[in-house]
Design goal:
This protein is an alpha/beta fold. The chain has one domain: Metallo-beta-lactamase, Chain A, CATH 3.60.15.10. 23% of the residues lie in helices and 30% in strands. The chain is built from 5 helices and 15 strands. A 7-stranded mixed beta sheet has the order 1-2-3-4-5-6-7. Helix 1 (46-52) crosses helix 2 (74-81). The longest helix is centred in the C-terminal third of the chain and has 13 residues, at 154-166.
């Protein structure tokens, strides 16, 4: 996935920029009709992030969760753009991120002539959210093509698996999900391995960096 790549220009334009030592995906969602945009997860390299925003009117900055590698450039980018920041209140409180308004499950955000829906997917962090639009979604670090995001305790993994089952894997197979690091995949491609993982016995103490295999 190359820096500044764009997807599905017939609907919301989606651009991605890999930033920082953790190769965090910073996303820009742009309405092609109005050139209004949402910026998601400015994790590092503020100059590059601002360059990504050139030529559009960013109306909000959203954070998929509170881990520092997803908002290290927030201060400089927020000041330069002069727009409000949203994060789920659970992560805002836990990670000390100052936001202007809370992201809530089911909230719909307008981007020009299009809508983006906030979906709460706790487990990787208590306040992790996905941002769903048409047949695509930004899922932060909740899900990757090969497994769930990192968890810090067995209960967190159980929470994440249940969250994914109830939300992300309830989406149609042709939905493409874009993670916080690395390349996208479709729900249909990921579903068989997820279902096989759920069907297999596993240790009640399992947590951390888990794969479906």
């Amino acid at each position: 996935m190359s820096d500044g790549a764009a997807y599905a220009r017939d609907m919301l334009e989606l651009h991605v920029l890999s930033v920082g030592e953790y190769a965090t995906n910073c996303y820009l969602l742009t309405c092609p009709e109005t050139h209004r945009a949402l910026l998601v997860d400015p994790g590092a390299d503020p100059e590059a992030v601002l360059g990504l925003c050139a030529g559009v009117r960013v109306t909000r900055i959203l954070l998929t969760h509170g881990h520092f590698d997803h908002w290290l450039a927030l201060g400089e980018v927020r000041t330069a753009l002069g727009v409000p920041v949203g994060i789920h209140p659970a992560d805002g409180a836990e990670f000390g991120v100052e936001a202007d308004w809370p992201l809530r499950d089911g909230m719909r955000l307008r981007v020009g002539q299009h809508l983006v829906r906030v979906v709460h997917v706790p487990g990787h962090t208590s306040g992790s959210v996905a941002l769903r639009f048409d047949r695509r979604a930004l899922v932060g670090d909740a899900l990757f093509p090969g497994g769930p995001g990192h968890t810090d305790a067995p209960e967190a993994l159980r929470t994440l698996l249940l969250s994914l089952q109830r939300t992300v894997f309830a989406w149609p197979d042709d939905t493409t999900f874009y993670p916080g690091h690395g390349d996208p995949a479709t729900i249909g491609a990921a579903r068989p391995a997820f279902q096989e993982f759920l069907a297999r016995p596993r240790s009640p103490d399992l947590w951390g960096d888990v794969t479906w295999a």
